[in-house]
Design goal:
The complex is a heterodimer of chains A (168) and B (421).
Chain A lengths: L1 H17 L46 E3 L12 H13 L5 E6 L6 H21 L7 E7 L10 H7 L1 E5 L1
Parallel strand pairs in A: 2-3
Antiparallel strand pairs in A: 1-4, 2-4
Chain B lengths: L5 E5 L2 E9 L3 E6 L6 E5 L3 E2 L1 H18 L2 E4 L14 H7 L3 E9 L5 E9 L4 E10 L4 H17 L8 E8 L2 E8 L6 E6 L3 E6 L5 E6 L6 E6 L5 E5 L5 E6 L6 E5 L6 E5 L7 E2 L7 E6 L5 E6 L6 E6 L6 E2 L6 E7 L5 E8 L2 E8 L5 E3 L7 E5 L5 E8 L2 E8 L5 E6 L3 E7 L2
Parallel strand pairs in B: 4-6, 4-7, 5-7
Antiparallel strand pairs in B: 1-2, 2-3, 3-32, 7-8, 8-9, 10-11, 10-33, 11-12, 13-14, 14-15, 15-16, 17-18, 18-19, 19-20, 21-22, 22-23, 23-24, 25-26, 26-27, 27-28, 29-30, 30-31, 31-32
Chain lengths: 168, 421
């Protein structure tokens, strides 16, 4: 969480710099008599600001959920690039961990839905492992139908609730 | 108390609809038993405030069962069997008459002496003193109602039993234990994370339940006497669906520590965890047979969620439900001859029952958002979660489907009901 926070600040700073107006040129005073120049100190290496791709809003990594049809737990084709991007990221950032939270719509018993949500999370985990992430980086849980994002009894709502969230 | 009587005729069946409202909750009853016994409850003697309160509990209990019709007892209050003039009660149409008196002992205990009389045979069916500690007048009323119910129907009464359910208000969850009529509500656990699947220990002393308080589903067992609780199962992934064996010496639970939801046995102290299903699919909602030999459970191993049965010792599972739709949440009837479950078809959830011998499914309700059925200890009533006026409510249906009752709690959504001992 802390890392994410710092990342967001960095991105914001960079964005702020980029949007600054160009500094107006200062009118130079007449040059003084030349003096013997001291050897210039070796330039300090510019600090490398590495932007964590996790915080790039244009990256696939900005997508943190996979969605499913009713009573289905396999990752859908549309979401595979997202999961594969997270797999690549995790394989390249061994210090990062994720928690996969499976969620369901309310059309089942809530105990069945706990099982279904777990299966959704496990499905994403399998794909992350295939893509190079390590098991130790991944925790899976299920919220079943207990933590709905939307609470009405209709498909518009249900489809938002059938998902696995990838939480760093 | 508000009693509103509406009568309408549907076919040959008289539907009785009335409601009982109070500050705590309101109850609506729809339907009536096939043969309603006409009963008169004479005003009890003794402490009049208590006598009225106790009679109120008795009358409401009997009416809620749908099996009794109240005969007006206005103007008559015999206190002893010798005072009863039977022809008066016969003329009013009563077949049974309850009389009694109430007193408060010096130590505060409430004592009611009561007699149940057969008006037709002009004989005494039961006579008993019922007592309870100070303030527990509802317990006295429930006990009297149980005695009347038992004598007149031959079945055990369940008015003195308790229920557990979860009340949700926004993101706040409370695990609640109450009398079977919804009164005497006590909060067992209160938190801002979901609570699911309460399960009574067979002796009624403990509740096992699922809580998300640690960020994922884990199972706790809590004493209802001391409120002390301990973690039963907190493995990685999901821990859920606790079910007690009838002897209370082990529970079936569902864990995902080995992958998908599978059923395990575990001792109440958390020891001796043994896996008993190996489907690799979702196996959940185990429920022990009354003799402790079998488990009913839900599995989607056949492609859709259906009910299966297997020996507790392990072994092959037998599919119990077929046909269209999906089936969830099985529970054995107390006599072990059938089970109640949740049937989903065409987007609706129904409470359904099936007999092991015939294998026929019978729908007990009209369908809607109806979930989590559980039997009363006498097998005559089934409680379930339903929805009305955009709220989660508790509902009951008689096992013959004829009498239905809806209970509205004061606020929030009532869900996850389970009938206790």
């Amino acid at each position: 969480m802390k890392k994410l926070f710092i990342g967001i600040i960095l991105v914001n700073l960079l964005a702020a710099c980029a949007s600054q107006k160009p500094v107006e040129p200062v009118v130079e005073a007449p040059a003084p008599a030349p003096v013997v120049e001291a050897p210039a100190p070796a330039p300090a290496p510019a600090p490398v600001v590495e932007v964590d791709p996790l915080n790039d809003p244009n990256s696939l990594l900005a997508k943190r959920s996979t969605f499913y049809p009713f009573d289905v737990s396999v990752v859908q084709d549309a979401d595979k690039p997202v999961v594969q991007a997270h797999a690549k990221y995790l394989s390249e950032h061994s210090g990062r961990t994720v928690r996969l939270e499976g969620n369901c719509d309310e059309r089942g018993s809530n105990e069945y839905n706990l099982g279904l949500g777990q299966r959704r999370a496990n499905g994403v985990k399998q794909m992350l492992l295939l893509g190079g992430a390590r098991a130790s980086q991944i925790d899976t849980i299920s919220n079943g139908e207990e933590k709905p994002r939307c609470t009405e009894h209709n498909e518009a709502c249900w489809k938002q609730n059938r998902r696995t969230d990838i939480r760093y | 108390m508000l009693v509103r009587v509406l009568q309408s005729v549907v076919g040959s069946l008289f539907l009785l609809h009335f409601s009982i409202a109070s500050a705590e909750l309101s109850i609506e009853i729809i339907g009536a038993g096939e043969n309603q016994v006409p009963v008169a409850i004479a005003p009890f003697g003794g402490d009049q405030k208590l006598a009225l309160a106790i009679k109120d509990v008795v009358v409401n209990d009997l009416l809620r069962s749908g099996l009794f019709r109240m005969i007006d007892a206005e103007g008559k209050s015999p206190l002893e069997p010798a005072d009863v003039i039977y022809p008066d009660w016969q003329a009013r149409g009563a077949e049974a008459l309850a009389i009694g008196s109430v007193a408060v002992q010096p130590n505060g205990r409430i004592e009611a002496r009561f007699h149940l009389l057969d008006v037709v045979k002009q004989s005494e069916l039961a006579g008993q003193a019922v007592s309870a500690s100070e303030g527990q007048f509802r317990a006295v009323g429930h006990r009297i109602a149980d005695l009347i119910y038992e004598k007149l129907t031959g079945d055990k009464g369940v008015f003195s039993t308790r229920i557990a359910y979860v009340n949700r208000e926004g993101q706040h969850f409370r695990l609640v234990v109450a009398d079977s009529d919804g009164y005497n509500e006590q909060t067992v656990l209160s938190q801002n994370q979901p609570i699911m699947s309460p399960a009574w220990s067979p002796d009624g002393s403990h509740l096992a339940y699922v809580s998300f308080e640690t960020g994922h589903a884990v199972v706790y067992i809590q004493s209802l006497y001391t409120n002390q609780r301990k973690l039963l199962a907190g493995f990685s992934g999901t821990n859920s669906a606790p079910a007690w064996a009838p002897d209370g010496k082990q529970l079936a639970i569902v864990l995902t520590r080995d992958g998908s939801s599978q059923i395990y046995l575990i001792r109440p102290d958390g020891s001796d965890v043994r896996r008993i299903t190996f489907s690799g699919e979702i196996d959940t909602e185990p429920n022990f047979s009354p003799d402790g030999q079998y488990l009913l459970f839900l599995s989607d191993r056949g492609g859709s969620p259906q009910i299966y049965r297997m020996p507790v010792k392990g072994g092959p599972a037998e599919r119990m439900t077929f046909g269209e739709g999906a089936n969830f949440s099985p529970r054995y009837s107390p006599d072990g001859k059938g089970f109640v479950f949740n049937h989903r078809i065409s987007g609706k959830f129904y409470i359904a029952m099936q007999d092991f011998q015939t294998g026929q499914m019978e729908l007990l309700t009209e369908g809607g958002w109806e979930k989590k059925p559980s039997f009363a200890p006498n097998g005559k009533l089934i409680m379930f979660a339903s929805e009305a006026r955009e709220r989660g409510i508790l509902a009951t249906v008689s096992s013959d489907g004829r009498v239905k009752q809806r209970m509205f709690t004061r606020s929030g959504d009532a869900r996850e009901p389970v009938w206790g001992p």
